[in-house]
Specification:
3 domains, alpha+beta
């Protein structure tokens, strides 16, 4: 999910759900906040493991503070990065205690050493008659492992580059952690909620995924967020709320994304299904199955990229057709969901991403959260 779409979802889904049958916008919005906070009241944290296109991921949220507003308690939940959990469990580890600058300097040094090691390795291969990069078949195999098994590479530069990438990722996580202000973010989201409410109206009733729903629409929102050099302006939002359970069933957003000075219309739609109250998590209610769809007009540059992607996809399908069935089946197990998404996008259907919650654990220890994140990553590589 992009930063912009995550911001919008956090802002607007924070408006749901409510207890009882709502008749007015005030009742709906007040109930949304009350029920969301009730879900956090009896827990300190929760670890959620999701699977998206065959890839597992774990996120750990913890309650960091609370404040009083409009006569109710608002709890602030914060996403805790994996490097912070590692620091808590191993405070004396040089990797976890290093600053982001030190980590990036170490990554640069490791890559430089890898480049020198690769040059020496290629010379040794050439001297032995095996052949260097782009030369003999054996040398080429040693330096170019299968794309789905990069860890089999004998190329020193590949190995050091993977470690350097990990160090830079840890540095980025440290910078992100240092810049976080969860309570200020919560206050901004509350202000955004009030802005959305001022432009909202009830638009009717409909059945969504077999559930009776009431619709809320906000026009002329004009809410803008800047992130990583990109700007997204939200213009309108439509939300369908379960009339009986008062949870969000469908959220549709329209706006304009601007990157590199080029505006692009964007549509975002999210369906949340199969809500469950997880055992051991109090009143916390989560959708076990979600589908997100992204669409919009393409810029000239993106149209060119799409043409190139179509050519690459056609070439890949030709290569797959020539493979033995066992190898083809293995690749499709690993890449099938991604290829299906690409084919749909190239046919003009936009991007559709489906995710499912595998497990939720509330009041987990830092070690349990860390183990859950590591296990999710490991399972993604193994599968």
């Amino acid at each position: 999910m992009t930063t912009a779409s995550r911001f919008i979802l956090c802002t607007f889904t924070g408006l749901l759900p409510l207890l009882g049958t709502a008749q007015t916008l005030d009742e709906i919005f007040d109930g949304l906040i009350t029920t969301e906070m009730a879900g956090y009241a009896s827990i300190d944290n929760y670890l959620v493991v999701t699977e998206t296109m065959g890839v597992s991921a774990a996120e750990f949220y913890e309650k960091v503070s609370s404040y009083q507003q409009d006569g109710r308690t608002h709890y602030v939940m914060r996403l805790v990065p994996i490097n912070e959990l590692q620091e808590r469990e191993s405070p004396d580890n040089p990797l976890t205690s290093a600053s982001s600058t030190e980590l990036r300097n170490a990554a640069d040094l490791i890559e430089q050493q890898g480049q020198r090691a690769q040059m020496e390795f290629e010379r040794e291969l050439a001297d032995s008659g095996v052949g260097s990069l782009g030369g003999g078949a054996l040398g080429n195999m040693l330096l170019n492992p299968p794309p789905d098994e990069p860890w089999l590479s004998a190329n020193p530069k590949d190995m050091t580059s993977m470690y350097a990438t990990m160090l830079r990722g840890a540095a980025d996580a440290k910078d992100y952690q240092a810049a976080q202000d969860p309570e200020a973010d919560a206050q901004r989201n509350a202000a955004a909620t009030r802005q959305v409410k001022e432009n909202s109206r009830i638009i009717g009733e409909e059945t969504i995924d077999g559930r009776p729903a009431v619709g809320i629409m906000a026009d002329n929102v004009a809410m803008t967020q800047n992130s990583n050099g990109q700007e997204f302006t939200l213009n309108s939002v439509t939300m369908w709320v379960d009339k009986e359970r008062f949870v969000p069933l469908r959220l549709s957003m329209k706006g304009v994304a601007t990157g590199n000075g080029q505006p692009q219309e964007m549509n975002i739609e999210r369906d949340d299904m199969d809500y469950q109250q997880v055992q051991g998590c109090g009143n916390l209610l989560k959708p076990m199955h979600s589908v997100m769809r992204l669409g919009g007009a393409l810029t000239a540059e993106q149209q060119q990229q799409m043409q190139e992607a179509r050519a690459q996809m056609a070439q890949m399908q030709q290569q797959l057709a020539r493979l033995p069935e066992s190898q083809k089946a293995m690749i499709m197990r690993q890449m099938g969901p991604q290829m299906e998404m690409m084919e749909k996008m190239m046919s003009g259907g936009g991007i559709e991403v489906e995710s499912r919650i595998i497990s939720i654990k509330c009041n987990a220890t830092a070690q349990e959260a860390l183990d859950g994140m590591v296990n999710a990553l490991t399972n993604s590589f193994i599968n």
